[in-house]
Amino acid sequence: xxxxxxxxxxxxxxxxxxxxxxxxxxxxxxxxxxxxxxxxxxxxxxxxxxxxxxxxxxxxxxxxxxxxxxxxxxxxxxxxxxxxxxxxxxxxxxxxxxxxxxxxxxxxxxxxxxxxxxxxxxxxxxxxxxxxxxxxxxxxxxxxxxxxxxxxxxxxxxxxxxxxxxxxxxxxxxxxxxxxxxxxxxxxxxxxxxxxxxxxxxxxxxxxxxxxxxxxxxxxxxxxxxxxxxxxxxxxxxxxxxxxxxxxxxxxxxxxxxxxxxxxxxxxxxxxxxxxxxxxxxxxxxxxxxxxxxxxxxxxxxxxxxxxxxxxxxxxxxxxxxxxxxxxxxxxxxxxxxxxxxxxxxxxxxxxxxxxxxxxxxxxxxxxxxxxxxxxxxxxxxxxxxxxxxxxxxxxxxxxxxxxxxxxxxxxxxxxxxxxxxxxxxxxxxxxxxxxxxxxxxxxxxxxxxxxxxxxxxxxxxxxxxxxxxxxxxxxxxxxxxxxxxxxxxxxxxxxxxxxxxxxxxxxxxxxxxxxxxxxxxxxxxxxxxxxxx
Length: 534
Description:
The protein is α+β, with helices and mostly antiparallel strands. Among the domains are: about 65-215, Periplasmic binding protein-like II (D-Maltodextrin-Binding Protein, domain 2); about 295-500, Dipeptide-binding Protein, domain 3. The chain has 16 helices and 24 strands. Helix 14 (about 435-445) runs antiparallel to helix 15 and helix 15 runs antiparallel to helix 16 (about 475-490). It starts with a helix and ends with a strand.
C-alpha cells in the first residue's frame, strides 16, 4: 500500500549499612523524577538578569550509539530525540511530572483502543512557511512509518508499530487507525522520535539529515560531526513564553571531559559520572540536579544462539555470577540500586520473585559453568564507549566473571550498533535501558527488533505484554502482565539486569537561571530555563 493510500482524505467536518544507605539514596532519587532545580545567581548571591539571546551550552554525546540523525525515518537510537524535539517539536510530550501532554497537537481523543483522533494547533508553520497542518502531519507520520532503512525500522517505538493508516479529516484533524488495540502506547510513541514531523517539502530531497526544517522551538543552525550542534530560537514558535533563551549549543563532551568542560566554563550544563558528583557539589558555583526513570537500567545482553551462550548451563552459571551490591558500591558510589527485574524495586510492575533468580551465588555459578561442557568459556564483552561509567562497570563484571572461571574480553565500542548488534556477532554487550511499557520488551524480544540479539525473539513474552497497550495505567491486569513477563525474562537468562542508576547533572549557576526540570525520559527539560547575562 502506498503512502497516499494510507493517508486517506475524509469529508471535511465542521467541527548491610553501606548497602542500605545506597538503597535509601536511590529511593530518595526515585521521587526526584519530577524535580526542579532553581538556579542562577552571581557571586554575591544576587539573581543575574536573563539574556533572551543567550546560548545554553550543553555537554553531550553527539554520536550516542552511532551516527547522529535528524530525520526520524533514518534515526536508529532514541537519543536523537534530544535534538529532534527541539527542531521539529513533537505531537505529544512528557512533562516534568511524568504526564503525557499534547504539544504541537492541541488535543487528542481515544475513540476506542484502535482509533485515535488528534487536533493540530491552528496556524502552525514550519520555519520556511510551509503549513504545519493535518496533511503535513499525516505525510510526516507516514514518511517515518514507510522508511526502508532497516536499522531505523527495527528501532521503532513498539507503540508506533501499531499504526496502520492515517485519515485526514479536516485541515486541523487527523485520525490514526491502529492494527492492534494499543492507543495508549501509540500516543506515547508520538512523544518520541516518531512524533517529530518533518517539513513535507524536504521529503525525498536528502536534506533532512543535513539541514532539517521543523516547527519546533528552535531552528537548525550548524552541525560539525562529533564536535558541535547548534540550534537557534524559532521566533515564530507558538509558545513564545516557554523557551526564554536564544539557542542551544550541544558540545561533544562526555564523562571526565564533560565535567572538566563544566568546571572550565566551556559548557553550562553537563551530565556527571557518579565519581565526579562530589567534586562538583563541593564547588558553590554549581548546582546538582539528580533523578531517575523507570527505564534507567543497565543490562548485559547475550547472543543466545552462538557459543558460549548457546549452552543453557553456561547461561545459568553467568546469571549467578554478578554481585550487584558490589557493582553499586564500586561502580556507582552507592548511587544506584541492584536490578533483578526490568522495573525498579518499588514500581507497581516490579516482580520480587526475580530476586531469587537473578541472584549472586558464585559457588553454584562455578559448578554450572564447569559442568556445562563449554571448553572455552571466553567471550567478547562490548560496551557503549560514549558512556563514561561503562568502562569501570565492565571491568567489575570482568573480575566477577573471572572468579567463576569465565574470561570476558572487554571491547570499548564507539558504534556498538553497527559493530556488534546488527552484524549479530557472538558474545555480549552492556547497554542502557531506553524504553518504557511494551517498548521495554519489544526492544529485547520482538521479532525483527534491532536489539534482539542474534535475531532470537521471544514471542511468548511479547504476547503477554502487547495487550497492556490497550489497558488503563491503573488496571491491575496491566501490572500483572508485566510481572509475568519479567518472571519469564528472568527464566530466559537473557538479558541479565545489573543496576538501576541515577542521572546527575551539573549546572553553572552564573549561566543557567530559572528552573531546569528532570525529564521522565532521563534528560533535562529547559522549558522555563533562562541563560543569564555575564
